[in-house]
TrEMBL record:
It holds the Pfam family CbiA. Residues 62-282 form the CobQ/CobB/MinD/ParA nucleotide binding domain. Keywords: ATP-binding, Nucleotide-binding. This is Mitochondrial MinD. Gene3D superfamilies: P-loop containing nucleotide triphosphate hydrolases. CDD domains: MinD. PANTHER family: SEPTUM SITE-DETERMINING PROTEIN MIND HOMOLOG, CHLOROPLASTIC, SEPTUM SITE-DETERMINING PROTEIN MIND HOMOLOG, CHLOROPLASTIC-RELATED. GO terms for cellular component: cytoplasmic side of plasma membrane; cytosol. GO terms for molecular function: ATP binding; ATP hydrolysis activity. SUPFAM superfamilies: P-loop containing nucleoside triphosphate hydrolases. Signal peptide: none annotated. One of its GO terms (biological process) is negative regulation of cell division.
Length: 324
């Protein structure tokens, strides 16, 4: 499935780095980007803002984005929003993937969708009529995407109006973005204060993430109004340390070096993810490695130091060592 990558020093990687340094020469990183601790791994780790529920800090709009599709954004949106809410924060998750509604499935509330995001924008219902409260965690609400095929229904003015209303009621708004740079993706990132840039450990995914970092840096509302830049965090999804050791995937260090934004988490590849989705349960609620990695990601985002887990191959048992 993944292209074989001979070694981190192979020529494609070097070409990518050169291209990137040319693209970014003029980019000035915000102060936030200079204040991270560096772990023993040599990877620059994210240091989020220390927050406690009800601390009165302004609501933050967090976009879960990527360059490439299918990297795990919706899986992450469900777990990140649920993880924040289970820490006691008032959280609203919004599905921006118009026409391809999925977040409601990941949160197990697809049968409770009556009104959606577009109904609210068009004034066909009140915001509180469209918000669906999670039954397991009442501080989490979600706003479902519309099933319409017309993506132009998401206007900047309409989305801005809804976001302004949500800012008054919630501490975090988590926006599940569609892939790429079309209308829905643009609206999902435009109002963001923070961005979780999801990438799989493969070159095409990382390269597209790099383009998206450029777009966030130049086309978001914060960039246009020249206010403090969006805080961008790197989240590596579907990581397999065994395949990295076999030189079939890019390592955490390579990806972090290439993208140059602080690492907030590494989510391992896990068979439980699909199982959880089928149950309508966010991965973070499970008991496997991916669940623990999502919990760590949320805590790092909230300003806590957490060691990186699941980035080295698991020791093989005696039988595996003998028979491979
Ligand atoms: N950590 C993971 N381990 C295994 N499969 C994953 C993981 N994260 C996501 N997936 C799978 O990848 C696919 C795409 O995930 P999804 O969250 O829908 O991506 P996106 O929203 O970026 O399109 C789904 O089949 C999902 O089950
Ligand atoms: Mg999705």
């Amino acid at each position: 499935m993944f292209a074989r990558i001979a070694s981190p020093s192979f020529s494609l990687l070097s070409a990518f780095r050169m291209q990137r340094s040319v693209m970014r020469r003029s980019t000035v990183l915000p102060a936030f980007h200079r204040s991270y601790s560096t772990e023993a791994t040599g990877v620059v780790m994210a240091k989020g803002t220390k927050r406690t529920p009800g601390d009165g800090q302004p609501c933050r709009i967090v976009v879960i984005t990527s360059g490439k599709g299918g990297v795990g954004k919706t899986t992450t949106s469900a777990s990140f929003a649920y993880g924040l809410a289970s820490q006691g924060f008032k959280v609203c998750a919004i599905d921006f993937d118009i026409g391809l509604r999925n977040l409601d499935l990941h949160l197990g509330c697809e049968r409770r969708v009556v009104f959606d995001f577009v109904n609210v924008i068009n004034g066909e219902c009140q915001l509180h009529q469209a918000l669906i409260k999670d039954k397991r965690c009442p501080s989490l609400s979600m706003l479902a995407a519309s099933q319409t095929r017309d993506k132009s229904v998401l206007t900047e003015e309409g989305v801005g109006r809804v976001i302004d209303q949500l800012r008054k009621e919630f501490e975090f708004v988590v926006c599940d973005s569609p892939a790429g740079i079309e209308q829905g993706a643009h609206q999902a990132m435009y109002f963001a204060d923070d961005a979780l840039m999801c990438t799989n450990p493969e070159l095409s995914s990382v390269r597209d993430a790099d383009k998206m970092i450029g777009i966030l840096t130049s086309k978001s509302q914060r960039a246009i109004t020249k206010s403090e830049a969006i805080r961008q965090f790197l989240l590596i999804t579907r990581y397999s340390p065994e395949r990295v050791a076999a030189h079939n995937m890019l390592s955490v260090k390579d990806i972090a070096d290439m993208l140059g934004i602080p690492l907030v988490g590494v989510i391992p590849e896990s068979e439980e993810v699909l199982h959880n989705t089928n149950l309508g349960q966010p991965v973070v609620l499970g008991a496997d490695d991916a669940a623990a990695a999502y919990k760590d990601t949320v805590l790092r985002f909230l300003g806590q130091d957490r060691p990186l887990q699941y980035v080295s191959p698991k020791p093989k048992g005696i039988l595996k060592r003998l028979f491979g």
